[in-house]
Write the structure tokens for this entry.
Amino acid sequence: MHPTEPQSRLVLLSPLAGWGTPLDEIPDPVFAGRMMGDGLAVDPTGVTLHAPCDGEIVALPDSRHAVTLRSDIGAEILMHVGIDTVGLAGEGFEAHVQPGRRVAAGERLITFDLDLIARRAKSLLTPILLVDGCGFTVVRSSGNREIAVGDLFMEIARTEEASRRGGAGEPGCGSAPGKIGQARVRRVRIALEHGIHARPAAQIAAALKGLAAEVRLTVQGRSANAHSTVALMKLGARNGDEVELSASGGDAGTAIEAVAALLAGAHQGSSSPRAAQRSPLARSARHFMAATASVGIEARADAVLPGVIASRGMAVGQAVRLTVREIEVAPVGAGVAHETSRLDRARAQVRIRLRAAHASASGTAREIAEAHLELLDDPGLIEEALALVAEGASAAHSWRQAIRGSIAALRALEDPRMAERADDLLDLERQVLLSLSGDAGAGIQELPPDAILLAEELLPSQLVALDATRLAGIALAAGGATSHVSILAAAAGIPALVALGPVLRRIADGTPLLLDADVGQLHVDPGTERLAAIRRQLELQSSRRAAEREAAQQDCYTADGSRIEVFANVGSLTEAQTAARNGAEGCGLLRTEFLFLERETPPSEAEQHAEYQRLAEALAGKPLTIRTLDIGGDKPIPYLPLPGEENPALGLRGVRTSLWRPDLLCQQLRAILGVRPYGQCRILLPMITDVAEIRSVRAMIEQAREQIGRREPIEVGVMIETPASALMADSIAEEADFLSIGTNDLTQYTLAMDRGHPELAARLDGLHPAVLRLIARTAEAAQACKRTVAVCGGLASDPAAAPFLIGLGVHELSAVPSVIPRLKALVRGLTVQDCARAARQALRQESAQAVRKLAAEWAGRQGVPASPGS
Ligand code: PEP
Ligand code: MG
């Protein structure tokens, strides 16, 4: 985009929770006929209308039932709550804004009384229209699906043609109504070995998705909605049973044929290996294998379990298993509309979390998230819960009853295949109830002092909720060393091991443990003498660390006088403060995606600016490198759900996501550019693969600079974290002001190993010679263009890697704050000449293990400890 060209496209976020509905379905010819403009309606479940984009309120009548917003690019959006609501004369509406007020995307505009409107207005349908004549057209909209506030809603574009025609959108864009067809009935005999169990039930429901048809199955007098996996399973239909299929709707014929084919066993046994991988049966088989794999490996006293180091250090403490508490619910509700909307909101929140978990997880965890997502939207469950709500029960009670009823019905079938689904249902019950309780504390576990937390997997939000002062260490059965939660643990200085395997389940609560995350071992009940010796060692370590901390405030030079800057990676204000205390000479990487992790709506420009300003102040004038939002792949964020992707690590990630949502990027750039004093902040771009991406962002930076009236330029750096960017480092270095190597992703993409994969965690090593060669190439390219080159990936926090990185020409290490004093002490004992020799040798090695061996030998000769904890 050229700086002077007006922005031509805009993504509108959903202003209201509910069901996205084509305008054609509005019982009002003015809206249905698009006489006021094109767009999409929402059948609301939420009660608050939010701004779909940044802009200014241009109209808000006294009746407060509608509001018009002019976006920053000139498009006008009219939001009209309900049909014929002007007659309510403001009753049941509360406005949070006034005409002339600027608003940010996601800000509250109007809150309304859903019950009252449902009783008194013609319809609740709320049209969101692109006002006719404003020179824009709708290019994409998300009709016919459930939407949450902040979801992708509509994309609009400026077209010359539309400007000439007055901005009318393409009629019917994304909003073709389903045709009403004839009802059909057909009888088929089930030819499925195990009847309609979990897998065929899921296949039937999946086959009907997207078809305009209502389908029911009737077996021996029992009938079920075919769109509901749970209802189908509860039928208990067996092989050989005769089934009556009845369908209505435009696609009735297609739907009936699809279901009949599945019941006749058309897909039985013919599933692809991939489908087999995803099937509930395959999942239960693998759960079983995982559970039984630990049998025979006793986590007895004296056992030493090998794990992968996620956050270095040692901890002595007692085993505490991650637990979840039973949630109490009130049986009686506070009105049907209120409870319905609460349930919808809670499900929407869980859906956001599950989608995020699904995108970031792999293997079993991913499959579980997938299964939960399916069940969350199961029409049978929802129908049952809503029926209870209609009888006056609370949302929480209704949801619990619907789930428990299904579990009982599944168990009554006495089919082990069905029982596996019961656990999924219980888990889902808990997730929705937690959301409904609105009490974050309901999920928080109290820890005893010196707790070593044992869990299968840990979510970043779960870690953040725990009391860090009592958490001595973390031991996970699954997980990866560079996963999100590992990064957070390292940042907090909590020693952590991952990929310890299912044997972890056999350690009883309260067992004394020694977690040695310097060598990668968990010692189970190592005996009082050994524990006492370790405690003494830890005390010695802590006095050595105190000395290192004292020296850490001074600048860092090698023994032969080369300046090596030691910066910090930061993801919060607290970490920035710790970094400054630990002697960081600046921040080499601010992971902005971590700043608003718990939010479900995007932070406004003002909120972002305020947070960056606080961080800059915490660093007292030292450089602050702010990386633009790096989400996608293993880093989903709830407030920006991404489209489902087959392979998220290779999909919308880093700068690609930002260029896909230029509105959010522009906001972030303005927020960064506004930080004072000018010159303290620099911008870092993640996941760059070529210079075109840098040029696009630079153009937007120029535009943002103009918008806020800043004349001073800002430095723009590029993350080298894909093999493409390392190989293109020469041309990238010409376009960028500095380079920063992200070894976490560079290693993942070079070795083609998922950074969160537990089985590959031990082999995912940034000291692999292939990765070192890419670093060498990047450093050479940077040197040729006189650009600085930093390492901000996990390798910079690994003392074994420091000599090699310095030897390859890296002059800035950006590490986790807790490691900085140790790292500075280590660098002060090195000479660049020795490091260069060591690096040349490393490049010639055959494997990462060989490089690690070299590092250990080299450290032994130099008399430096190879790890911060040793
Ligand atoms: C990296 O990939 O090394 C990096 C620093 O980025 P992140 O870990 O945030 O993906
Ligand atoms: Mg990265």
